[in-house]
Design goal:
The structure is a homodimer. Chain A is of the alpha/beta class. Chain A has helices at about 10-25, 30-40, 45-55, 120-140, 175-185, 195-205, 265-270, 270-280, 285-300, 300-325, 335-345, 345-355, 360-365, 375-390, 390-395, 400-414; strands at about 60, 75-80, 85-90, 95-100, 105-115, 145-155, 155, 165, 170-175, 190-195, 215-220, 225-230, 235, 330-335, 365-370. In chain A, the strands form 4 sheets. Chain A has a 5-stranded mixed sheet with strand order 5-4-3-6-10, with helices on both faces. Chain A has a 5-stranded mixed sheet with strand order 13-12-11-14-15, with helices on both faces. In chain A, strands 7-8-9 form a 3-stranded antiparallel sheet, with no helix packed on it. In chain A, helix 8 (about 270-280) crosses helix 10 and helix 9 packs across helix 10.
């Protein structure tokens, strides 16, 4: 019931360190004057915070990257090039991506693997990730420090333990994926988990098409359909971290059967399987078959175009429901739904006109994902950076101690 | 994008004053020891905060109301009996209630008026409220101080200006209700506005069946169907304050036509009009006709029972959608939907079993409103108390100055 407890003076400095680091992590290069203004603190306080984050090896001051301004450039505060990195993992139905992402959001290295669509077990995927993490460590300088691993999964998952409650398109139910994975990783690395669409929403909010919006929805279409909701600048997680299951919201109680056991779920109208069916294709969904329909629709083939537009109607109805409930400033679509929005915006907008309450409908913007197909991966990195940004002092490993710790961890993994 | 700005030491005291007052406002009587524990502050700080709020005329220390403990009772901190009060107004389709509510949530006085169902203008309602506010002031001691007026409206409304964007069952569109009302009230009184279901959610969260839950949904059935969502302990308002329009979420694209212009909205399945239709009644919805169906259903009349159960199916589908999207800890139903939940819980639970994702479904609780039919009214009072709780120092009028100010305001109103 209570709001967060009363603020204690001794907590303020650490909170402010986190705020400053977060600004720099998100925007890359900022002058002290900009930081002073954003944080509403005086110059000497900003100076002290910058000094402390510099000592922690997290930021440094340098000449800005761009060169547009005449005269002597003023220094900017920026994430340290050899600062800590996050390992982001995106598990999808037919692929696994493992990447090192720097403070500031740059992808330093990445491995992409395609997997068979059917029958992949949590053990297969954990082995693959563990091997890639080992390769990543080997490819980076020994001084590199990892803040941890953030894993995106295509289903409902517990945030800390990584128990996959239900990943329907992997056909996993109640799998202790987190335990299986952690056993195969170097000891002492923090591993956290999130639903792919939730993490996509987080990343689009921080660095993509929903940047600067406090209330946003992200929808992504793959074989499954997922959603993530940003409320008041924060990811909506719900009571147990399972919020955002837009794919299984009802559009019609007598609609097509859904693999979840219900009927007429959003997924049966706007998922990739629906796209193929509505476009008259009889092939199973895969990257290739979906790409073929999209190419055909772009080229004006009537069946493909009809399919995309029918999905557009379902997408419009889905968005109308979300607009009525959540009144977001912006709705972002990713995956195949980005293409659907692009090619059938008229159908989507028409459904919104008919079904969404007028004031909320008038103000909502529809956009395609700003991070393309990387939203969930970048969201995984943001998840891993979370504890560092919340409390840099309590979390960061100063450079001189990090080397040995990492070396041990890497040896343990070999 | 940024979290709230960096905390400044000089803001902490005022923030903490608000936190302490909020605890006492919500829970009535608390010992200093309880306050020390809840706020995580030391005893001397709590002592100073209590002294300052006492000087402001907001709280006092007294012997607790109950008498269960043996020995000398320790004093408790409690809202001051003659402390500031809020004026709560609930505008409904066929009624207006105006009440004085004390710090601590006690209704000190209230006026209930029934209005004709059709053709009531914003002017009629504003006149009624202004007369009742005048009577309230006259009925309370001259020393009573008002923090302002919180108005609950059955439609979408802008929080500060009180422009009613759409109140479908009053047939108001874009009405400057706030301006019309404020012109008729004593000068200088703060007036704020909220959607009835949003305010109901707020009140149920603070004092009703959702108390202690951080993630909750409140649904209320009258002629219209409204919703309010609590996320992370706060009311979800959305970009423009229009969130929570559950009544116009889609349950079936080819369903019955809705007065909003769409088809198959939640309201056409679970509103009072739907209840009467599904129970085979041909009378228009009114308090009496709905009460008759409820009585008949309780008595086991087959048509009435069938109607209530059909509404239960629609309610279950609506709740399943909300559980999938929001993963709330609890869903509260009020108005006619409280009765529907009571009489057709099996239908509601069955739809949840079929349509809601398992983990979120397993943990959600379904409850009827704890404040009965007063949720929105009490929510109006909470709205009016908001500024005082956020900053008691900047908002409270000390007792000695209040008398004159109120006297002037009351004279202006006469």
């Amino acid at each position: 019931v209570a709001r967060t407890g009363a603020a204690r003076p001794e907590e303020i400095r650490r909170h402010n360190l986190g705020l400053l680091l977060e600004q720099v992590h998100r925007d890359g290069e900022l002058t002290r004057a900009e930081l002073t203004q954003r944080l509403g603190l005086n110059r000497s306080t900003i100076g002290a915070l910058v000094a402390e984050l510099t000592d922690l090896g997290l930021i440094d001051e340098r000449v800005p990257t761009g060169n547009e301004r005449a005269g002597r450039p003023s220094h900017v505060v920026a994430p340290r090039a050899d600062g800590p990195f996050a390992i982001a993992v995106e598990v999808d139905v037919d692929s696994v991506v493992t990447a090192a992402v720097s403070l500031g959001g740059e992808v330093l290295a990445r491995y992409d693997h395609t997997l068979p669509v059917n029958g992949t077990t949590p053990y297969d995927i954990a082995e693959r990730i563990a091997a890639d993490v080992e390769d990543l460590f080997a490819s980076l300088p020994l001084s590199a420090r990892s803040v941890g691993i953030g894993v995106s999964t295509p289903g409902t998952v517990t945030p800390t333990g990584g128990r996959v409650e239900h990943a329907p398109n992997l056909e996993w139910r109640n799998e202790p994926f987190g335990t299986i994975l952690t056993e195969r990783l170097p000891q002492g690395i923090a591993v956290s988990f999130g639903n792919d669409a939730n993490l996509g929403a987080l990343a689009e909010h921080l660095r993509g098409a929903a940047r600067g919006f406090h209330d946003a929805v992200y929808l992504t279409g793959k074989i499954g359909v997922g959603g993530g909701v940003i409320v008041d600048g924060k990811l909506l997680s719900g009571a147990g971290g399972f919020a955002g299951e837009v794919g299984h919201m009802l559009l019609d109680p007598l609609g097509p059967p859904c693999h979840c056991g219900s009927r007429g779920c959003v997924e049966t109208y706007v998922g990739e399987q629906a796209l193929l069916r509505l476009a008259g294709r009889t092939v199973p969904p895969s990257r290739e078959s979906v790409a073929e329909v999209v190419r055909a629709a772009r080229a004006g083939e009537p069946d493909a175009l009809r399919g995309v537009r029918a999905v557009g109607v379902g997408l419009g109805r889905t968005i109308a429901n979300l607009v009525n409930l959540l009144n977001p400033q912006v709705v972002i679509t990713g995956g195949s739904l980005a293409t659907v929005l692009e090619l059938s915006r008229a159908e989507v907008e028409h459904e919104l006109d008919v079904r969404a309450m007028s004031e909320a409908r008038r103000t909502v913007q529809l956009r395609t994902a700003g991070l393309g197909d990387n939203s969930s991966l970048i969201g995984g990195a943001e998840l891993a950076f979370g504890p560092l940004l919340a409390d840099p002092v309590g979390t960061a490993v100063p450079p001189e101690r990090a080397d040995r710790r990492l070396e041990r961890a890497t040896r343990a993994a070999i």
